[in-house]
Amino acid sequence: MALALPFLMILLFGYALTLDVDRIPTVVYDADESPASRDLISRFQGSRYFQILGFTNGYGMIERKIDRDECILGLVIPKDYSRDLLLGHRPQVQLLFDGSDSNTASIALGYANGIIQPLALEIRTRAQNRPAGITAAPVNAQLRVWYNSQLKSKNYIVPGLIALILMIIGALLTSLTLAREWEMGTMEQLLSTPLRPAEVALGKMSAYFLLGLIDMLLTIVVGVGIFQVPQRGSYAFLLATGCLFLVGSLLWGILVSALTRSQLVAYQLAMLTSFLPAFLLSGFVFSIENMPLPVQGITHIFPTRYFVAILKGIFLRGVGMHVLYFQVLLLAIYAAVIFLVVIRKLKQKVA
């Protein structure tokens, strides 16, 4: 533990985890479709800070992609953009930001302004060659931050804390249960009873499930009541998905406990496989989009990534099952697979 943990931390923080923001997923709605609008789009495409994912024909697709966490910025160029540019009027461009990650949205806003403002200066410079009576007006960037208009970091951090707390309760605490039985010499007696392996696992995790449920309710009450975090979605859907994630976390702790016969080893293994990934690789603190592609692939292994996305969707965007069904399905598959592995492992112990 003393050697592996520092090595893992330095690799993650030095290679994968960064607060820098680049390759910002961007969707474009070009209603003008003119050389002037294509020039503006090319400036975003030429910047390393933005990654154009595609083009849409309306606001609906931008909203759906932001709701599904598929993009952070929507660039909207109105139909009269080139006409206003030629006539010397004040052409407008709309920038729609996903504010559910306040840090990324703030930095992306600055990068976008860094592209718009030089364009405005170029337009003013070109005014010297315009006919008399026509003046150049700078581009007016209309900024809209969705879901967290004031870019308050607590609106993003507090929902993510629910996932972190449930993972601590689920994996770290339950990882000690069966290991303690082995150390005390009572596990053989427990396995010799008529109880089936599934009943042993469910019985061991029942008390921790109740404890985790209370902690989840307490966190929601404090976050919404004291810190004024917006909760725009369904409380029933929030509790249902929270319980599903909690069950998966508890089962993982039971599995770790069944694999080891030492509380110390079980706790260390649970720390490496649950708490650290939940904190570092879930998108809770560090944006997954800014990680290297191999590390982004690794994040798909950990269920906390999907639960953090669900929490952001429920609290800040007010979306439900129709948008978050894929993340919910993955959480259910994760819990079912771990449950089957736990049962098989306990049957092997009995044999």
Descriptors for this entry?
351 residues; alpha/beta; five-stranded mixed beta sheet
Largest sheet, strands/sense/barrel? 5 strands, mixed
Low-confidence stretches: none
**How do the strands of the widest beta sheet line up side by side?**
2-1-3-4-5
Q: Share of helix among residues? A: 55-70%
Note the run of SSEs as H and E. Answer: HEHEHEHEHEHHHHHHHHH
Count of DSSP-assigned helices: 14
Q: Per the principal axes of the C-alpha atoms, what is the gross shape?
A: elongated
Taken as a percent bin, the fraction of beta residues is: 5-15%
Overall mean pLDDT stands at 83
Which radius of gyration do the C-alpha atoms yield? 25 Å
Gap from first CA to last CA: 31 Å
Which structural class is indicated by helix and strand composition? alpha/beta
How many β-strands, per DSSP?
5
